[in-house]
Amino acid sequence: MKYKIALILTLMASGSLCSFDLRANEAQPALTPTALDYLPQDDDERGLWMQMDELEREVKSSQSLIKDPELNAYVRKILCNTVGDTCGRVRIYIMRTPYFNASMAPNGMMIIWSGLLLRTENEAELASVLGHEFSHFEKQHSLQSFRNIRQKTDAMAWMSFVPYVGMIGQIGAIGSIFSFSREMERQADLVSLDYLADAGYDPNAASDIWRRLRAEMDATAAERKRKSQKDDNGGFFASHPNSGERMEYLEQAAGKKPPKNYMHGQLEYRRAMAKWWPLLIDDQIKLNDFGATEFLLGQLGEGGWTPQLLYARGELYRARGKDDDFAKAAGFYRQSLSGDAGLPESWRGLGLALIRSGDRTGGIAALRRYLRASPEAFDRAIIETMAGTDE
After folding, report:
1. What pLDDT digit, counting tens, does each position of 24-34 carry?
2. How far is CA 299 from CA 118, 121, 295, 303, in A?
3. CATH for 305-387?
């Protein structure tokens, strides 16, 4: 079953692997998937929906699913503001996965990875991603992909392929359909710009995302002292256009939209996401990608270095632990505490950083402050072993 799901997720994440000429598919059926009463129209579509329904049941029960009603309602509001009443056909699932990604299934299931929410800076940028995924749904790109695979190879073999054998045997067939997949991605990008402009969101938000993603890849490369991958095709399943090309055509298309007072919704976005940043940043730090994480924290810090962001920066440097990182981490923790002495985690981080940098006395004192400030701390037993108590 997990290999069946792997193919399904590939279809979703790639934005469709299809060799059909999009110009031949511009005419839309009278009843589109966005209609609330829409049902699969043929055996291919019914079969694909069955697979998606099965996947959706697994997603619903996943421990990675973020079920917070407030966050889910906020993301849904942005989708509905962007695409209108047809948003009712979509079911949104936010997965706790610290990478930039979103996908849309033909049965109306939209999956958003939490790393995306850390990287979008305002409502307009989130709307551009949601509009892009919705356009895949509206244009039935996944169904076209599925039919193309049926033409290229035995779909049932795909659905039950044996790892390392069946998959490798299909490489030639998949490789022949990439260019059309990129055309679909371009179509979804441009339709998303229409959604943005019509909803009053700044259409430049779409290219802004790609500009920062490229800068993030540069930051990763600089830290690891290697060539940036920002212009790579992204591996075998490289269905998306090159990020630089994508940024350029999105910027050009946005420039053709009528000038008006477009909205960004940055303050609203920051207000909605502020309580989630500690969790999202912690997940990002655990990826062990110092360059990217420092870049992302810097982006968030442009709106002001809050005690929470300073604490996160301290955690980042303490986790790397190179050269004078512990001393730098201690500095960030102190800055955090100067802005919010009630943030217990900063006392813990300060104590651990001081001990690692050789100041055991100062470290123990800070850890004891942490224990007093957080009597129900989950790690109390461990910290008491290190610092004892001052009672």
Report:
1. 344 444 567 77
2. 10, 8, 6, 8
3. 1.25.40.10
Of 207, 204, 206, 229, residue with least CA distance to 216: 229
pLDDT digits (tens, 9 = 90+) for 288-318: 999 999 999 999 999 889 999 999 999 999 9
Choose among 316, 272, 271: nearest CA to 293: 316
Terminal CA-to-CA distance of the chain, rounded, Å?
56
Residue 154 in tokens: 């035995």
Q: Can you give the pTM of this predicted structure?
A: 0.82
| Per-residue tokens: 128 | 């551009």
| Sign of the alpha-carbon dihedral angle for 101, 47, 54, 5 | negative
Q: What is the rounded distance in angstroms from the CA atom of residue 266 to the CA atom of residue 120?
A: 10
- Token digits of residue 356: 């690692």
Residue 130 to residues 195, 297, 305, 373, Cα–Cα distance (Å):
10, 24, 28, 41
Q: How far is CA 64 from the centre of its chain?
A: 13
**Cα Rg for the chain, rounded, in angstroms?**
24
Give the residue range(s) of CATH 1.25.40.10 domains in the chain.
Answer: 305-387
Q: For residues 9 and 142, give the distance between their C-alpha atoms in angstroms, rounded to a whole number.
A: 11
Q: Containing H/E element for 215?
A: helix 205-224
How far is it, in rounded angstroms, from Cα 346 to Cα 333? 5
